[in-house]
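S.,

Sequence below, as promised.
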Amino acid sequence: MGVKIKDQSKIGDLLKAFNQDHKIKIGYFGSNADKKSGDSDITLGNLAAIQEFGCKIPVTDKMRAYLASQGLFLKKDTKFINIPERSFIRSGWDNAENDVLDKLDSLLNEVIQASFPIDKLLDVIGLESKGKLQQYARDLNSPPNHPFTVAQKGSSNPLVDTGEMIGAMDYEVD
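The prediction came back faster than expected:
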């Protein structure tokens, strides 16, 4: 007389799922990245990249005249307008990583018990990560905006004007 053991756990399925390369991308892609920012020609993806990495904008005569008409008089020797780096994706992740990993750790037991599918786990972690980065961007206050920019937009928060750029951030599970 033999003993039969039937394994009804989902360990085999779970191991297969974890052996696949799963990636969660957070940032600006697809139609959100391609949307224009307000009335400008710049896309939200490009605007996010400018804020994330900073940039130097060459000053043209046309730009100089426009800024003067708005009350900002550049010095004659000003060749560039510098937008400083305001890393909200890289620094935001550095700030949120431990919290996100704690959340992942807390959900792994449910995945192992097969009460929580891995695709839902990835979605929860993607949504959690995106939310943490968006909050970091809303809270970022350094480097500050130039006083002219503050006067133009009516707020001193460097990354928040209409909220459109932060709201366009998304996540994607591969």
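Residues 15-173 form one domain.

Coffee later?
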